[in-house]
Description:
By secondary structure, this protein is an alpha/beta fold. Helices cover 36% and strands 16% of the residues. 25% of the residues are buried.
Amino acid sequence: MKAPKFMKLFAQLPSLNQPQRLQVLAALHPAAGLDRVIALIAEIRAPGRRCPDCACERCHRHGQANDLQRFRCCQCGRTFNDLTGTPLARLRHKGKWLDYLTALLDSRTVRSAARQVGVHRNTTFRWRHRFLHWVKYDRPQQLTGIVEADETFLLESQKGSRKLDRKPRKRGGKAALRGLSHHLDCILVARDRSGQTIDAVTGRGALTKSQLNEYLFPKLDPQALLVTDANAAYRAFAREHGIAHHAVNLQAGQRVRASTQGAIHVQNVNAYHRRFKEWLARFHGVASWRLPNYLGWLWALDGGRVTSVEQLLRVAIRFIHR
Ligand SMILES: [Zn+2]
């Protein structure tokens, strides 16, 4: 619209009545959301922007496409935008992303988020896992001091699969086998006393020493004091790496023990398990292979680590500023 025509339109705005004002605001909302998200993406990616193909830092502007500035690499000549190579590349309806991120912060279900944002539920489902893809990797480098570790189990789920490798269960159901069978997914959680937490879906059935080597060892400070229950896998793991280890015998009714380093218990990690399961209940079962995304989602929200849509977008496109 040309400037004089716009001035005329703008001058008429005060004469709108309330329903009309609301209508105008609703019509402008997606556009305002789009402007904000585009500005935010550019702000996040501009420092250290480089070609996703050859990592060259020299590039020049090369037109616009899909609402984003396109760039052309000076070295290899390829074109890219600020979302190329991120899980959000080629997702549509950018004007609604910030509303969707609010729904993620509120832990909304697929249908509730779809209603709130005004897109189809298949879209909010796809968005959930695209936005969480890098969120799940945003983890502490190392756990230090007293580190509690414990595993918890969830009934294995093949939700959404076209082919099941077992008979379907009726109404969620229970594990067909008693005890720690291959019908249960094992989730290992380790948390130090500063609240830094890592987790891993180690697979079906009981936790093994080799899984601890794979998931816990790389994140554990060699000087840490590992506190666990009496599971023999932890004892063998700690002995193999020469890590200080205390076990609390929960089955014998022992919960807390005093030591020179501090209270010996696994109550923080068990409380984390509980929070995860209570929070997860709203989704009425999630597919086993997607569990890492949900663990990452809870870690982002737990203890108010991520509280704004801007922060969440930063993590989703892998720029973590704390
Ligand atoms: Zn390049």
